[in-house]
Fold each of these.
Amino acid sequence: MSKKKGLNRVAIVMIAFILIVSSLGLYFFMLGGVGQQTAYPSGLYTESEGEPPMFQNHFLNVTTLDKNDIPLNNVFVIVFENNIARLNGYTDTEGKIAFEMPTGEYLVQFEKYKYGIESEYLVFGGDTDLSKSMEIEEQLVLGIPSWLIMVIIGVGIFGLIYFNRKDLQIGKWKKPMNWTEHARPGSWTFIDKSTKAALYGISLALLVILIAIIVPNVPSLENMAYYYVVLGGIALIALWMEGVNKRYPIAALGFGKKDALMGNVLIGASFALIFIGITGFASQLNILDISTINSVATLFVLVIVASFFEEAFYSGVLAPTLAEKTGIASSILITGLLFTLGHGFAYGWALIPLIIAFAFREVATTIVLYRKSWINVFVAHAIINMLSVFTFVIFTG
């Protein structure tokens, strides 16, 4: 196959993907799933414009203070409605931020480094002043910050991996096959028939559960479930295309060598704990209120479905395909950007979580392409999502 034909096919696949993602983004935008960063009232739908009262917005004026009633600046304030981040922004030097929004029920969350995460339920019926006092509440274990404990455990697991690298089948880091240039067709496909069969079975089972159980019975997770139905469906179709006809410009990765399974699992656990500690990760997926956070459905969707389908697509199909067609470097960058875009559509456009999502994907894709397996980052992803849920319960429960 000539380079020109190969590039044309890559272009077709990328255009199709962009159209799908754009359509999905438009769908979530129409549902109101896109947040806005607001520092001052926007002036939309005010009484002066003559809008009917039922369409009027009102102002939520937020003030954040420390325990001595001194204003706290740079507090990240997020307004959630129906489990989606609608509005967000940072308080100014006077500890203030104002949002304009319609009446309804909201969860307002406050985050600041070294301060305990605070939340307020708000039945918003008109102009409201909300004052929130925050206290320094660094989580300590035997006098050691919890984030440092995470890093120590993660580094300890990494040390265990290193000193047992032969038994765990952890090879040396070899020079990349194609850092900036394309590789021969099929060179980035590392998946066997048994793994494909397992992926088909697990994916179909998860899709059935999402469509038949989650969507009709858990309204708060409906939009998220649709996102993962689309993502999982695309991953399945791409995997099927890769197996049916080798002419399709698609590469795929599986779970790697069976002898290296334990090593990959430990790599994922080490990565997750170190990542959580270094980023000061506390609760970056706090998109669910207390009434839904403890449900089995929520844990299932965030820990199992989200982790599996995101890694099946981004790590199992997209990363190796881009590595084969455009090079490893561009694969790492593009996968990170698309992953961040997908998170914005699914969870809202809160800045800090999106930056952390991008950082996670950059490291995750590097690990995936090095190990030629995505079981490691699936484990890491599941651990991070699980701890985000439990952390939310600890801080707000």
Amino acid sequence: MTQKDKLWGDALVTKLKYKGSVIHFVRTSLSLKVGDASVEGAVYQAVEKPEFFYVVNSDAILKLNTKWAYNPGVGGFSMHAPKSRRFIVCLNLDGGVPFLSSSPVKKGVVTWNGHDDWNRFEWPQRVD
């Protein structure tokens, strides 16, 4: 992340008057296999917690060495990204709902029956 990226995140947190912990996810070069196709630019890794990965397609969190992938959308969880989508500022990363049909999360291939039709960043995000 650049200094400009960090300043963007700091301004967001200030505007939202958020006081909790902030996790930054950065886009990786890891590809995501969806059916027979590979999707690029959909997997992000947490800077402060490198064992966490966020998959934009499916809105899923992968945490290394856990039993299941999960949907993080509970407890005030929110994700915010600039237009570049190079990084994501995550607020309230405190839990989620497991995909009970995933393989264990480990380095290598991880599979789950998430829904690839959900993308948290398709809707405009505004902070006034």
